[in-house]
């Protein structure tokens, strides 16, 4: 590590950040009308709209962002944000990275507040610092009053009351405050559980949880603990910190989407935890949308969790990487930064190895449940407590489980690298944020400065024209919505015909497999050698050997499997092409409809003397592609030999018993039984046909639902962003008009201030570009 070079680059980054903050202070002193009503109205409908950069709220956000980068530069801290849906295994993944259980796992949202987990060498036992606890204590006092007269029966109907929630209710009734420090895993668990349950409870009783008080990263809880994987490594110049973020819409709190976006913008890098079994779900798409919005300002990585659930028919590692990189993330992340893993296996294996290294044995499985989970995963479902006494076997099994978890690769390629280059990550993050700020500031300041040179009447005319353009925008939105709806209906109708055709082709291809001639051929018989049996229907095949019956079922299964796999690949490929084309068609329709408005506005402003940059949004609908593989996997369900055997065993025996009118009388003493194995080919065929029809219907319904959600969300975002852009232009013109109404002295003073800020923003932009280039050169040299 080039320590001196890092120090010099850090000094330069700190200087530019301080200069940017001073420039913001100057900007905030300028006369500016408030846009709160417009912004609030928009953000209330569309939660992923970024506020305008230089209105009152936008200035505060920029100051917070720059201060956060300054804090990271001062500490040389690399913040790796972990993001994922509730069931993706985010907490388990963090526990696997840390090497011990620092976050609780429950089958409900567990990250109402972002939480930092900082690697602290020598801190063997985790400690939670929650210094900014005052807003939570205020909330508890408010809820104490509300719960005093609240009907507990009604509360139980609205909320799941478990022992954790009961404990929290008792705590609120007694007015017990939160501590500022918690030492040890169990106290930390209780604190985090209480915080998350407090969010759910406050929502039910109508108390506002103070999310805004924890918008700044320095106010959120911090867990300090030594990461097991990093223990004993050389101390590097910098810190590695994980940021556990709330998933979008966790606990029914839609505003968490905004909090997630804000937290990601403050990270040095982002690690998305995706669920291998739910890669194309709507909730997973919300996470992908959030991390894509971060853009190129921070590096992106992905852990595809639950890869242990892969079977021989599922996508392998390379297929998963290609699908996420290309189809799901649209090229925002490279395949080499995607790691399929099993976080649960990684956590269990690593914790077991750590316990064995420290104590020479595992804890009592009855006292610590994770030992039971480890034993089942590493030793098998039939493990016994005595198996844990064979320490060498347990250690070997833990090593194999760690290997099977595939966690070694991301630990070495991501966590080790992040720790070794924490200072570089912090510097790179700061340089990108500085460049974004400088560019936005220059565009805004240029526009405001031009407004001072435009005639008063011309300003008023442009404001009026923008109002007309915004009205035109809303009219065009209704027309375009009808056009888009028609395009979607046509696409779904064509897809319906395609799926129906594929269903018929599958049924036709499978039918010959269940013909009697083919079944006899697979069983190794010919029609002439099959003995007529009065108890055997033509659609049944009777075999004397169980192994022979199982082999026959396996052959039927394999034959059907080949047909279904071929069909599923064809359907997946065709649907992918169809809906990629639909997405392009919709984007083109929106652009064609809205481009005249954009050109008109640019032309109007240009004639008035403005050099306006209008940010024309892009329509994106990342959920349109649909994965048929998961649906068809369950369609392959061969008849169990057990059910056939039961039918065959009872046949002769029950008949003889009825003849004797004494069921079971003397049977074992006088009769030698002959077990037979009956396969009902007709029923098996019908079962396959029902499965195929069911899953084709599932595809139809899932496509219709996902296309509807995707198109609705994509269009809402498109029009809201364009409306905000126009509103921002209009607000800047009004600010200029307000200044022109003042005296000449005030106008001249503002003009000078604007020129000074423009010059400063230009210096910041140029110097930051040089800083970024130096950092990228050094970063490339340090990468393995």
TrEMBL record:
CDD domains the record matches = Ras_like_GTPase (cd00882)
Report the superkingdom from the record: Bacteria
Coiled coil stretches, renumbered:
449-476
| InterPro entries per UniProt | Dynamin_N, G_DYNAMIN_dom, P-loop_NTPase
Q: Which GO terms describe its molecular function?
A: GTP binding; ribosome binding
**Dynamin-type G domain: residues covered:** 74-412
SUPFAM superfamilies named in the record = P-loop containing nucleoside triphosphate hydrolases (SSF52540)
Q: What is this protein called?
A: Clamp-binding protein CrfC
Query: What organism is this sequence from?
Result: Silvania hatchlandensis
């Amino acid at each position: 590590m080039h320590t001196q070079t890092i120090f010099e680059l850090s000094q330069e980054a700190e200087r530019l950040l301080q200069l940017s903050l001073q420039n913001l202070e100057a900007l905030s002193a300028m006369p500016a009308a408030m846009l709160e009503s417009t912004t609030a109205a928009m953000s209330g409908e569309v939660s992923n709209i970024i506020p305008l950069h230089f209105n009152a709220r936008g200035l505060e956000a920029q100051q917070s962002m720059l201060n956060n980068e300054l804090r990271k530069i001062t500490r040389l801290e690399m913040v790796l944000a972990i993001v994922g849906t509730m069931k993706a295994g985010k907490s388990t993944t963090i526990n696997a990275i840390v090497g011990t259980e620092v976050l609780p796992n429950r089958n409900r949202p567990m990250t109402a507040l972002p939480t930092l987990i900082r690697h602290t060498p020598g801190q063997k036992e985790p400690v939670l610092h929650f210094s900014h606890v005052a807003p939570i204590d205020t909330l508890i006092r408010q809820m104490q009053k509300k719960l005093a007269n609240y009907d507990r029966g009604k509360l139980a109907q609205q909320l799941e009351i478990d022992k954790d929630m009961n404990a929290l209710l008792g705590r609120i009734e007694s007015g017990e405050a939160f501590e500022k420090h918690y030492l040890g895993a169990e106290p930390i668990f209780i604190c985090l559980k209480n915080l998350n349950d407090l969010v759910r409870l406050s929502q039910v009783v109508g108390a506002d949880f103070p999310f805004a008080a924890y918008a700044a990263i320095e106010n959120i809880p911090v867990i300090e603990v030594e990461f097991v994987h990093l223990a004993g490594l050389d101390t590097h110049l910098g810190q590695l910190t994980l940021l556990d973020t709330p998933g979008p819409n966790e606990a029914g709190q839609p505003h968490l989407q905004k909090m997630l976006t804000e937290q990601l913008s403050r990270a040095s890098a982002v690690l998305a935890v995706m669920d291998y079994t739910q890669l194309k779900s709507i909730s997973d798409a919300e996470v992908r949308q959030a991390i894509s919005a971060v853009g190129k300002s921070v590096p992106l990585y992905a852990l595809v969790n639950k890869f242990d659930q892969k079977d021989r028919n599922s996508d392998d590692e390379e297929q998963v990487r290609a699908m996420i990189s290309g189809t799901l993330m649209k090229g925002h992340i490279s395949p080499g930064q995607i790691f399929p893993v099993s976080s649960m296996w990684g956590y269990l294996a690593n914790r077991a190895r750590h316990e064995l290294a420290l104590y020479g044995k595992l804890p009592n499985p009855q006292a610590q449940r994770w030992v039971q989970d480890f034993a089942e995963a590493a030793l098998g479902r039939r493990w016994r407590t005595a198996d844990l006494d064979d320490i060498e076997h347990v250690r070997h099994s833990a090593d194999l489980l760690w290997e099977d978890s595939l966690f070694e690769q991301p630990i070495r390629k991501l966590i080790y690298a992040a720790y070794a280059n924490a200072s570089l990550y912090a510097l790179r993050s700061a340089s990108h944020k500085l460049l974004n700020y400088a560019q936005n500031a220059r565009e805004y300041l240029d526009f405001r400065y031009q407004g001072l040179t435009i005639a008063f009447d011309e300003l008023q005319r442009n404001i009026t024209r923008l109002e007309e353009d915004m009205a035109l925008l809303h009219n065009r939105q209704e027309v375009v919505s009808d056009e888009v709806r028609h395009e979607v209906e046509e696409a779904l109708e064509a897809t319906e015909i395609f799926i129906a055709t594929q269903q018929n082709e599958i049924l036709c291809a499978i039918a010959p497999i269940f013909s009697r001639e083919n079944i006899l051929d697979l069983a190794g018989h010919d029609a002439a050698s099959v003995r007529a049996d009065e108890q055997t229907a033509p659609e049944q095949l009777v075999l004397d050997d169980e192994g022979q019956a199982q082999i026959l079922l396996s052959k039927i299964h394999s034959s059907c499997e080949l047909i279904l796999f071929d069909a599923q690949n064809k359907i997946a490929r065709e649907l992918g092409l169809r809906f990629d084309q639909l997405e392009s068609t919709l984007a083109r329709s929106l652009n064609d409809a809205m481009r005249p408005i954009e050109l008109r506005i640019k032309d109007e402003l240009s004639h008035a003397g403005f050099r306006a940059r209008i940010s024309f949004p892009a329509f994106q609908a990342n959920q349109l592609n649909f994965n048929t593989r998961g649906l068809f996997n369950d369609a392959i369900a061969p008849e169990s030999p057990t059910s056939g055997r039961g039918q065959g065993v009872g046949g002769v025996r029950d008949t003889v018993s009825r003849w004797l009118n004494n069921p079971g009388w003397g049977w074992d003493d006088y009769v030698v039984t002959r077990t037979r194995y009956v396969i009902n080919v007709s029923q098996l065929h019908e079962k396959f046909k029902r499965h195929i029809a069911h899953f084709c219907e599932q595809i139809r319904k899932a496509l219709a639902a996902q296309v509807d959600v995707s198109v609705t969300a994509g269009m809402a975002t498109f029009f809201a962003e364009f409306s905000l852009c126009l509103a921002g232009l209009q607000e800047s013109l009004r600010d200029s008009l307000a200044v022109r109404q003042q005296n000449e002295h005030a106008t001249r003073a503002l003009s000078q201030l604007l020129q000074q800020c423009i010059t400063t923003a230009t210096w910041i932009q140029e110097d930051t570009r040089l800083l970024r280039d130096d950092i990228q050169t050094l970063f490339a040299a340090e990468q393995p």
